[in-house]
Amino acid sequence: MDHDAPTRPVKTVQTAFEIVLTLRDLTEATVTELASELDLAKSTVHRHLMTLTEQGWVVRDGAQYRVGLRFLDVGIATRNANPIYRYTCDRVADLAEKTGEKAWCIVEQNGRGVHLYGESGTSPVQTYARPGQLTYLHQHAAGKSILANRPREEVERIIEVHGLPEITDQTITDPDELFEELEKTRRRGVAFNEEESVVGLNAVGAAITDQSGYALGAISISAPVARLQPEEMESDIAELLIETVNEIEINMEYAGGQDEYPLE
Amino acid sequence: MDHDAPTRPVKTVQTAFEIVLTLRDLTEATVTELASELDLAKSTVHRHLMTLTEQGWVVRDGAQYRVGLRFLDVGIATRNANPIYRYTCDRVADLAEKTGEKAWCIVEQNGRGVHLYGESGTSPVQTYARPGQLTYLHQHAAGKSILANRPREEVERIIEVHGLPEITDQTITDPDELFEELEKTRRRGVAFNEEESVVGLNAVGAAITDQSGYALGAISISAPVARLQPEEMESDIAELLIETVNEIEINMEYAGGQDEYPLE
DNA sequence: AAAGGTTGTTCGAAGCGCTCGAACGACACT
DNA sequence: AGTGTCGTTCGAGCGCTTCGAACAACCTTT
């Protein structure tokens, strides 16, 4: 999996989390299922599950094991500790209400995007996004606006680690094309997503930056192509997003030193 | 901590999660801080953090480490997989809107309560509850209505494991008193919380049960004592809750075999 | 009702790999 | 330059994880 080992990882911990992830993917599983899936001894899996269950990381229901809600506890706690979340979630709700469409707030972590908070407007678009979801930054508007406001070397490192996987015909998969797109995004102040992540879905995104212009996160509005045409994306929606971002940035600057938390 | 060891837990995994929990409590910490806090060698903590960071469970920002949003990913996924969440969240929102107060949906896991989903009404009560929060079932209305619809042996086992910790003067701390209260709750169909978890806060809760009458979860409405007096709790609010529960239970029965998931 | 298939669970031993402390390197502040 | 930090690397020792086999509990099958 990894080319080399700068520091040897703790293998036991890796298998523990592998169990958790498999459990999440399967929704529920028995000891034997997990053992065969992960190619481990039943007894090993059993011991791990006992350990995880004791602390609520895993719950058992008869023979079936499931991921415990303690992950939700820790997950929500970290989200709430994130200033981007605190300063954007109300604004995201406003955007959803004003536009009637889906609005999201997204941050970067380890070179990937994480959906922090989303709110649906009156016209429910059945998107498959959910809070906590891990995405590739080059595949959507919010992600591209984050990349557009990061140093080029950082973007290059992200491409190196994660690549530019394709998800629809429209996904940008060429690094040069991406850098061109980021340049355009910087000039416009907003990023567009024209069916690059989901066929039939367009979106506009704008980055939230600190005083130095470094992107801390982004917000976006998405809607079916029928309701969100390029001309509207460039005018009304773009303007609304930029206004909102300005408001958020001002609020964050005022709080300033209060909550020290540069957040990569 | 534990009286005896039925099966020896995997110590390495325990320390890994201890690191995560300490990190959550401190919001952020350095290697040395964690090492001294947990009484481990710096190198050990470092190796663990490297392992956890590689998978996104932990994020580093220079010298500071923080819990990663991957916990949110897994946490939200398990919440969404939970039928109680799927069938109650819209109804909880309705309740919040109708009453103008705070409404919650809660489930039991490992003998403790977990706040699954909450929605505020128009009158914002600054409660300290958040989704994912771990609570004691005997300390609030929703929890008591769950206990009231579980076999007595199960309640006894929960008391044995978790005790009946006091949080306010009004908290029930005597097992006999609790069983009496649960009996009353069963007769009424709803449970009351009169400043038993937070001074100045009252609440009413009702259990969601399966066909056999076994509690799967509960919903509750809470408000400051000034706005939620006993007489109202027993009439309007109680009725509203019971109606809502009936609606939820019918919806769940119809879906029936669709999503097999007894969910303790 | 007994037999054969599941399953989860316990046990002991073998040896992997986790933990530790000390040494190293990088950085900031004096 | 010097002296505190800090994070990081390295090499052993032995703790503890892993495994497989045996056990027990439970269905299904005959």
Structure commentary:
- Chain A is of the alpha+beta class and 264 residues long.
- The first copy, chain A, folds into two domains: 11-68, Orthogonal Bundle (Arc Repressor Mutant, subunit A); 75-259, GAF domain (Beta-Lactamase).
- Helix content of chain A is 47%, strand content 19%.
- Chain A is built from nine helices and eight strands.
- Chain A has helices at residues 11-26, 31-38, 42-54, 70-81, 83-99, 141-148, 152-162, 175-188, 230-255; strands at residues 58-61, 64-67, 102-109, 112-119, 134-135, 191-194, 201-209, 215-224.
- In chain A, strands 5-4-3-8-7-6 form a six-stranded antiparallel β-sheet, sandwiched between helices.
- The longest helix of chain A has 26 residues, at 230-255.
- The radius of gyration of chain A is 21 Å and the shape is elongated.
- Chains A and B meet through α1, α3, α4 and β4 of A and α1, α3, α4 and β4 of B.
- The first copy, chain A, binds a DNA duplex (30 and 30 nucleotides) through α3.
- Chains A, B: Residues 10-69 form the HTH iclR-type domain.
